[in-house]
Amino acid sequence: MPRQSPVPNELDKPFYDACNEERLVMQHCDACDRFQYPPEATCRQCGAADLPWNEIGGSGTIYSYGVIFDTPIAQLQADQPYNCAVIALDEAPGVNVLSQLPGTPPDQVPIDAKVRLTWYTTQANGQKVPEWEVVK
Questions:
Q1: Contacts of 122 (CB under 8 A, 6+ apart)
Q2: Where are the domains of the chain?
Q3: 57 near 41, Cβ under 8 Å?
Q4: Contact 109, 101 (CB under 8 A)
Q5: Edge to edge, what strands does the sheet with 34-36 contain?
Q6: H or E segment at 93?
Q7: For residue range 71-94, what is the model confidence (pLDDT) as tens digits?
Q8: Quick one: average pLDDT of 89-114?
Q9: Which residue from 2, 15, 53, 94 has the least number of CB within 10 angstroms?
């Protein structure tokens, strides 16, 4: 299914540059020892401005999900319904990401299942984006 093609800005450019190299990076606040996503200029917890990008492996667990039956996003309408799963990342406690779970039929998402990171190249601009699929 076609995905939207993100256009990186100054704040999230390191994230998308790493994605194009098939590496997953997250901002990490060394002051309070926590990861954060999506990226922000300062730490949401302590306000520190020094947020280096740390590479993580991308494994995780399905925390929750919903099925999209009626999206206003034209590029996604042809593939409705589709999953929108909330993934809790193993190496970044407290960080959740969203994924459509390629290969998993709508409404057949196994809660607490392990997932692995994969990459999808968007059609409009060739930007790679992370996706997660169920480990079988």
A1: 2, 3, 4, 5, 6, 128, 129
A2: 13-134
A3: no
A4: yes
A5: 34-36, 24-29, 53-56
A6: none
A7: 898 877 888 999 999 999 999 999
A8: 96
A9: 94
47: part of which helix (H) or strand (E)? none
Only one residue has tokens 């299942």, namely: 113
User: Rounded CA gap, 76 and 14, in Å?
Assistant: 26
The number of angstroms, rounded, from the C-alpha of 9 to the middle of its chain's C-alpha atoms is: 17
| pLDDT at 1 exceeding the cut of 60 | no
What predicted TM-score, i.e. pTM, was given to this entire model?
A: 0.91
What are the tokens at 27? 């901002």
Residue with tokens 């939207």: 4
Q: Which residues of 59-69 are buried (b: 16+ CB within 10 A; e: fewer)?
A: bbbbeebeebe
CB 61 within 8 A of CB 113: yes
Strand 96-99, strand 114-121: pairing? unpaired
Tokens representing 43 are 């730490």
